[in-house]
Amino acid sequence: MQTDMHSTVADPPHATPNGTAPQHNGPHKTRLGDGFGTGAQRDTGEKPTFQEDSLESSLATHSRKFDKILTAIRDIETTLEPKIDALRIDIELTGEDRKNLKEQVETTEFTLSSLGPSVANATPQTKALQDEVTYPRLRADDQEGRSRHNNVCIVGVTEGIEGPGMELHL
To answer: Is 149 helix (H, G, I), strand (E, B) or coil?
Structure first.
């Protein structure tokens, strides 16, 4: 096995169960020390090896995939940017609404706390007014009851027989 930097290298021997090295169609050419296949051998007119071609095609494939990913990310950014701006505006408006509602609640609480003593004073006044209204109502109920007791009922005469007016009936 040779160890030159740009020489043909045979596959490392691998022991098989019977102790012999596996048979290959031939040694694979590799360029040791030349990381991406862009070194001196290419300049000398030598054809690229199988590994160089697969590495370059793999690199090209990954480069295309990377470009597609970058394009997709840019598309996502352009579509999400207006939505994110709209969300920012909504958040700002919601914050302003919350601030306004907080001020309204504070104003209402202040008003209610200032009206508390007035309500406490109004309760005895309301009770006095209810007592004043109760007395005339009781008198009116009593008068209605007495007038019913003084009604005269004539037995044998059907009610409503007189028609629209009593004077015409008599």
So the answer is: helix
Helix, strand, coil shares of the chain as percentages rounded to 5?
65, 0, 35
How many CB atoms are located within 10 Å of the residue 51 CB?
Answer: 13
Question: Three-class SS of residue 84?
Answer: helix
Tokens 């004077």 sit at which residue?
167
Beta-carbon contacts of residue 25 (< 8 Å; ≥ 6 apart): none
Cα–Cα distance between 40 and 35 in angstroms, integer?
12
Give tens-digit pLDDT for 112-161: 888 888 877 888 888 888 888 888 888 888 888 777 776 766 677 677 67
C-alpha–C-alpha distance, residues 162 and 22, integer Å: 136
